[in-house]
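Exercise 7.
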Amino acid sequence: MEWDRDNPLKRAKGESTKANQALHDYARMGLARSLRDLHTQYIQRASNARPTAKWWTLETWSRRYEWQARVARYEQLLQEQELAAFAADRLEWRKKRLDITKAHFGKIARAMQEFDAAGVTLSQLTSAIKTVNEELRKEFGDEVQRVELTGRDGGAVQVQRTEIDYDSMTDTQLEAIVVAARAFREAQDNDA
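Solution. The predicted structure, written as tokens, is:
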């Protein structure tokens, strides 16, 4: 018996449309499928809505047209499609995280250069650095303990990683974070 390995539910040579419909119904039953349950479903359907109501016909079709092998291949193809979709989604999120990281690095560099003029608080700057560090750890699985930036007059500025207690922040500080997040989102939208 020959059947298409790339499309295992496709009607095989010599397979009737009724037998192929039964194969499709069997495959759609999922992992708990059984010929007995399919037979029970067919008995309950109107005669014009079922390929057969005879047990021996189902059993013959299943054996003759290799339903078990075809459904196993069908399940394998579905799993491969799901894995490919998952990998594509993961790659897309990875690209987004890298874009976020790049945007944060740019903002941090600008903030350091214009630290006094921009009115940026150290808390806001630290929060931005924390976000960058978290994104880098997510992406590369590395622990980023310290970030060095070029500060005023080209000198290195070291920023220690600290945990921020958002609960102790004032409304003004929290609002500044929201404003920065909105600006970040707008910058992302403009880059897209």
